[in-house]
Amino acid sequence: MRRSSPVVIVAVGLLLLLGSEVWYTQRVLVQLRGESANASRIYALAFGALADPGGADADFALVDVTKKIGELGVPLIVTDSMGRPTDALNLEITASVHDPAVAEYVKRLDRENPPVALPGGGKVHFGNSKLVRGMRVIPYLQVALIGVLLVTGVVILTTRSRADRESVFAGMARESAHQLGTPLSSLSGWVELLRDRDDPMVAQAVPHMDNDVERLERVAHRFERIGRPPKRESVDIALIAGHVVDYFAKRVPTLAHAIIVSLDRPEAPVQLAGDRVLLEWAVESLVKNAIDALAGRGGAITVAVAPVPEGGVRVRVTDDGPGIPKNLRRKIFAAGFTTKERGWGIGLALTKRIVEENHGGRLRLVPSDRGAVFDIILPG
């Protein structure tokens, strides 16, 4: 139903446009026919007056001519040689001909059309009929409606294209999670078999293998969540950040080009309503980017969790790497943008979506003199 709503809106808009065009055209035709009939009657009365210039019918004819002109709906004001109104027809104001408002109305009529001079120095000031005014305004309204329909059509096409891409991406992610299930179960079984072996090297490796299998299971679980509504449960964001730091701290280089990953958090839990899986994914993505930035050079990464004065929680990920060039800072959150040779360019875009769309927070790149600083601001 939601997908068809924009199409219904455009269809209704087109029907309204066509209906208004037909209605207005018929209305113009009716008014033009009426004006043609009045012009014919005026001609007949004037012809009759000319045929009998001295008779009584001539006076009646002139009165009828004036009446028929009034029926045309054209606003008229007659002024004498001193510019004072002496007669008026079809004005939008209700005032006597000697009212100052009528004199002001003369200026408005003169802006619409130049006055017609009369013998003796007087003038006839006239404006536009309702038909003419409508013919000036209606085309602009129709053009505006066409513009709105065109913009709506472009938005519909863009939204549908993006929705189709997201649907394909979500389907691929869920299928990947499904395919990962079988090898993960097999790996868990092999780890259990290795755990029973009496070998110091194996015993030392098994806990790390357990952690890696657990992480792969979390990744598979994340892929299953793509395209689904986020959960709303009470989570400790400091504990989530701690899990991320602990995982990477055991796997980053510690000898050549050592990388130190540390956590700065308050002692008390930092609770908020959110999706544990997605929030861990967001923090992990920022830490992983920082590790990639320090690859081959070493450095330090700090994940700091702290409440913010205006309410909510801030998770700040800081590294002392080369930082992000100024000309790229506006592009880093765009899907598909990456500076890595083998990167997909979806890490920061996905993190931004998790933080802002799924949790109503903010993800921003904080200006810094050295390295890169990212802030995740989440509502409490």
CATH level-two architecture of the domain at 233-378: 2-Layer Sandwich
Q: Can you tell me the CATH topology of the domain at 233-378?
A: Heat Shock Protein 90
Question: Percentage of helical residues?
Answer: 55-70%
Order of helices and strands: HHEEHEEHHEHEEHEEHEE
Number of helical runs?
8
Taking the sheet with the most strands, its summary is: 5 strands, mixed
DSSP strand content: 15-25%
CATH superfamily of the domain at 233-378: Histidine kinase-like ATPase, C-terminal domain
Radius of gyration: 40 Å
Q: What's the number of extended β-strand segments?
A: 11
Structural class: alpha+beta
Shape: elongated
What distinguishing features does this structure have?
four-stranded antiparallel sheet, 56% helix, alpha+beta, Heat Shock Protein 90, 11 strands, 380 residues, elongated, five-stranded mixed sheet
Descriptive report:
Helix content is 56%, strand content 15%. It has 380 residues and is an alpha+beta fold. Among the domains are: 76-127, no CATH class; 233-378, Histidine kinase-like ATPase, C-terminal domain (Heat Shock Protein 90, 2-Layer Sandwich). Strands 6-8-9-11-10 form a 5-stranded mixed β-sheet. The chain has a 4-stranded antiparallel β-sheet with strand order 2-1-4-3, covered by helices on one side. Strand 10 and strand 11 form a beta hairpin.
Write the layout of secondary structure elements.
Layout lengths: L4 H47 L4 H16 L4 E4 L5 E5 L10 H13 L3 E2 L5 E4 L3 H66 L4 H26 L7 E4 H13 L9 E6 L6 E4 L1 H19 L4 E9 L5 E7 L27 H12 L3 E5 L5 E7 L2
Parallel strand pairs: 6-8
Antiparallel strand pairs: 1-2, 1-4, 3-4, 5-7, 8-9, 9-11, 10-11
Helix pairs in contact: 1-2, 1-4, 4-5, 6-7, 7-8
